[in-house]
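From the shared-data thread, chain only:
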Amino acid sequence: MTTKQKGNIALTSAIKFFSDKTYTVLIPLNDSQDYDLAFEDSDGVIRKVQCKYTSQKQGVKKDKFIVKLYVCGHTDKNGNNYYKFYEEGSIDYFFIETEIGNRYLIPYNDIQHQKTYTINETSNKYLI
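Structure, as tokens:
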């Protein structure tokens, strides 16, 4: 499965999740934004969401998932690859889906300034 296909799985799962909550889901016309979708919550506030999918495991028992909280592979004007990190205010939530189907909705402010996030027992508070 390609990275793009994995991202599409997370995106469609997020659309279903927010639609099931009867939130209005907004999808950008292109992919130049830092967010994959936005939704209007019950208070009428627009929230931006970056969707991630992970199958990468770590730990002795390989029981923890690792999520990259950046985008790589883009090239700058000189043709060099670079990593793009999400800045404060660019997104409100990370929606993360694991290869075993667990989904997490994590506020950006809870994991800002991290390159990766490890899903473990303490992540259960974000499990949806």
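Helices lie at 3-20, 108-111.
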